[in-house]
Amino acid sequence: MTPHPKIDAIVETYLSLADAEAPGLVEGLYLEGSAALDDYRPETSDVDFVAVTAAEPPIEALERIHTRLGAHPFEGIYLTWDDLHHNPADLGERPQAHTGKLGLGGGANPITWHTLARHGVTCRGPKPGELDVWSDPAVLAAWTDDNLDRYWRRLVTRASRPISRWGLAALGGYAAVWIVTGVSRLHYTLATGDVTSKTGAGRHALEAFPERWHRVINEALRLREDDSATPTLGGLLSGLGEHFGTPRRSLYGSPFERRSDVLAFADQAIIAAHKLYAAR
């Protein structure tokens, strides 16, 4: 049983297509991400999966499965049972589904392994606790600390340039949620050794950071709960309208003021998270 009927429908469709295309290929199917962390939002969340096969799967068959699955927000990675016993950094490229397309990538990371081991939702196969999934707290912490700069610091720098793709996107609600909760999730992992959802990260940030940042954190939580902030032009325009409508829904008077706080908070959260890692 999954956390939402929409997830049930997507999983059932996927498994039907996979079993028809290659009977017995998908031996294990697990959900991670928001679906596993009690934070699934049917309008804005992807369904993140880990599919497990006995041996390396035929790419052509996977491509046909995901082509037939179409635009369902079903994103994840294909692994073998043996892969789960190893540090993901030691694995080569693995088949990955993203935005309805299947390709090879090296995007496996310890967050996925950790989420699967501690929070994974079983759709097919043995329970995660029976799998002996690889785990190393030191590696998880080091990867998280590195990701603060490798991804998030670079993103904040791009979003700080007003005339740029992310500079414009940062005026909308999607970027506010993505950035504020994104850096807060990494701070949470370095503070606790566990992983959390976007909403869980926002609640953590309210406790971990001074009141100066509570308005922008609460704005991100509001947008997350509203379940309408999407990374599209329509989502951007809708988010901008929240500042000027009657009644005004945003906690901010203008999108420029909100963007300024989003980026300033992210900067402080990254610095604070690095300090947590340095103090280990």
For the residues shown, what is the average pLDDT?
A: 93
Can you count the helices? Answer: 11
Strand order of the largest sheet: 5-4-3-2-1-6
What is the beta-strand fraction? 5-15%
How helix-rich are the residues, as a percent range? 40-55%
Helix-strand sequence: HEHEHEEEHEHHHHHHH
Indicate how many domains the architecture comprises.
Answer: 2
Please give the structural blueprint:
Elements: H1 5-21, E1 28-32, H2 33-36, E2 47-53, H3 59-69, E3 74-80, E4 94-98, E5 101-105, H4 110-119, E6 121-124, H5 137-159, H6 165-169, H7 173-192, H8 198-208, H9 214-226, H10 233-241, H11 255-278
Parallel strand pairs: 2-3
Antiparallel strand pairs: 1-2, 1-6, 3-4, 4-5
Helix pairs in contact: 1-3, 5-7, 5-11, 7-8, 7-9, 7-11, 8-9
Would you give an account of this structure?
This protein is an alpha+beta fold and 280 residues long. It folds into 2 domains: 5-130, Beta Polymerase, domain 2, CATH 3.30.460.10; 137-278. 52% of the residues lie in helices and 12% in strands. The chain has 11 helices and 6 strands. The chain has helices at residues 5-21, 33-36, 59-69, 110-119, 137-159, 165-169, 173-192, 198-208, 214-226, 233-241, 255-278, and strands at 28-32, 47-53, 74-80, 94-98, 101-105, 121-124. It has a 6-stranded mixed β-sheet with strand order 5-4-3-2-1-6, sandwiched between helices. β2 (47-53), α3 and β3 (74-80) form a beta-alpha-beta unit. α7 (173-192) crosses α8 (198-208), α7 packs across α9 and α8 packs antiparallel against α9 (214-226). The longest helix has 24 residues, at 255-278. It is globular. The mean pLDDT is 93.
